[in-house]
Amino acid sequence: MDENNKKTRRKFLDRGLKLGVAGVLGGIGLSKLSAKFAPDDKAPTGETMELMTTDGTIVEIDTSEVMEVEHHHHYSMDYNVREGIPNRKFVMVVDLAKCKNALKCQQSCNKNHYITGDNAWLKVYKMQESADTAPYWLPTMCQHCDKPACVTVCPVDATFKREDGLVLIDNERCIGCRFCMAACPYSTRVFNWGDPGQEVTLNMDMTGVEPTPEYAGRPSLKGTVDKCDFCPHMVKEGELPHCVTACPNGVFYFGDKYEDTVTNGEETLRLSKLLEDKAGYRLLESLGTEPSVYYLPPVDRLVDFEEGMSEFKEFESVEKPSEE
Fold first, then answer.
1. DSSP 8-state symbol, 211
2. Do 19 and 118 sit in the same domain of this protein?
3. Range of the domain at 278
4. What CATH number is given to the structural domain containing 194?
5. Under a CB-based contact definition with an 8 Å cutoff, are residues 93 and 170 in contact?
6. How far is Cα 255 from Cα 216, in angstroms, rounded to an integer?
7. CA 140 to CA 146: how far, in whole Å?
8. Which pLDDT tens digit goes with each residue over 12-66?
9. Quick one: which of 271, 265, 292, 267 has its CA closest to 31?
């Protein structure tokens, strides 16, 4: 594909909020823009773009044959918050070969969820299987398991599993017993020992906003548990989670398992083929939790591991706020 075609395709994806067009994504329901055929009298441009049809076939067409139209996917009136978006099963794929510990994912997550200190929902760890193997970076977050132990042990139904695959926490119900933290084998939950920082509170506009389990624009509550939520407030608006769009290296892919499609905003892939070709796996699968987050092994890496060491702090991937 020539450079002009690459730019055209990239621009087209960007206009679709880095989620591709409906023809690429099939029925994934994660695009604010879709495409339809342009009028016949539109002159060919000579530039082509590749699109994936709903049956998985890659086709190449002239850019003049496609036009953008508004295509909104607002689910707020179509589903119950605790039940989830119907006919969807959201999944994430993390490509470890691309991760260089840039921490842009973490910074964006912290900013958009008003997280401070060491309570980050997404952490990046230095991993090494043995002295004879090369180290690599491992981003971790809630695995949104299909059989979550955290939901089973919660005595007040504050932690719940939705039909669309998301595991969420209702902070208004949470009593802070931390049973869920003890039950989670991935150690991805955090406890709010204190009130949010004053700076965080001042940055928020709560006027006319009714708190719900999927609304991330409010402070964490003292004495409750928090964790990664796959940004349901973004998903219902047809947008990708913050970590996906913030990553400069395309590490995170997000999509719908039922549609067998995931995207990192720059490319859209078949989930099943990606996992098969790259030997995808899930963390601690032997426990039977059936996570919704898949990992691709750190093979054929794009950058040297040492490039990510400058920002790394052992056992602490988040800088605490200044005491001043």
1. P
2. no
3. 90-311
4. 3.30.70.20
5. no
6. 20
7. 17
8. 334 333 333 343 344 444 433 334 444 455 677 778 877 766 566 777 887 777 6
9. 265
